[in-house]
Give the backbone structure.
Amino acid sequence: MFFRSIILCMCITVCVSAKDKYNVLFIISDDLSATALSSYGNQVCKTPNIDRLAERGTLFTKAYCQATYCGPSRASFMSGYYPDATGVFGYVSGRKAIGDRETWAEYFKNQGYHTARVSKIFHMPVPKGIEEGSDGSDDPRSWSEKYNCQGPEWKALGVGETLEGNPDGKRPVVGGNTFVRVEAEGDDLVHSDGKAAVKAIELLNKYKDMDKPFFLGVGFVRPHVPFVAPKKYYKDYPWQEMELPSKLEGDWNDIPKKGINYKTSENMKMSLEQQKKAVSAYYASVTYMDVQVGKVLDALEDSGQADKTIVIFTSDHGYHLGEHDFWAKVSLKDESIRVPLIISMPGGEALQSDSLVELLDLFPTTTKLCTLEIPDRIQGKDISELLRDPQIKVRENILSANNKGWVLQGKRWSYSRYKGKTPNEELFDLQKDPKQYTNLIKNPEYLHVVKEMRTAFTNKMKAVKTNDLK
């Protein structure tokens, strides 16, 4: 457990005029596990720039996405609705589902903000969308201006290797949603994230002379596969020294078939060497992304706007790096549903909150902090008080989903329900079994807990589906 000092007071200035309202700098990484960041306790992966943001903001240890893969997660926090409210579980913006209702960025735009997107905020296929430099599933109404950042992805010059479906090592480097590592030639600017940082810096410098506040969304695509980063970032992560998570024999025996992730060491046919190379490449990609975050934070300081800008850093969902022999996203285990989240206010100090929060909370929270009226329709919660008192309790449980089921998770109990016939549930005691190895759903000693969680789940789903979209 990584300990941070807790400071219980923080000054948040209330602004009145449009020109003096807080700006919002929203930075989002793609497929980033909280456990890969040194500010969250990782002792191997180097993320000094995200760490320094944490040293002047509130780090949330229990922040969760509402969908465990890119498209529906982004559509959710940008629209303000749970996926089960909109029905959006595909790779779309969610615009068709919400009609003329405003997205998070669009709401700020209509309140007098200049809104801009750099690279991936709504869903954009990686690597294809980055190779093409396309808009992906963007929502044009949300932005005053937008920019895409093209990159070579798996075609980058350098030493490349396909890590999955390649037991004999003869498969060439391939595209698609595939575990590929590339120790690339050239510098940061060859790749999409390097270009995204440059564009963000350019915009921050331009906005310092603007007569209205800004909402700037900067999307970095690493560490999403392919794991492509300049080769200098690999030097700190020799694959031979990477450690894999502990394994438990028979780990899958007590969970439903739908609880087994779509990518596993078994179906990816990855040797232990290839698994270690995947961790090495993931860490190199994270460090590369972290350097780009640092460039943007430096530019914010240099532009003179840091003292009136809220900075948010997060990811669209978590990521497995071998836990339960699972890889990538989508599962309903904690590694997949938990995200890093840091919110830094001007003049902020290092705080840590263990309260349960959701990505859906970003829309109402930034709205409140910028002294705007929170729309009644959105389903997240205003967590701005946690920036003053991180011990406040906001909710009992969080809800996340994939295309096979849902998980309702609190501080102690994690309850998953999958679509289909019983037995189709999981129950884990996070206090006694934080790594979620023992499914208690059939244990008669926990029948009362199962009943409580089933009732809580039913009530939560009813609340989610009670909205203005119907």
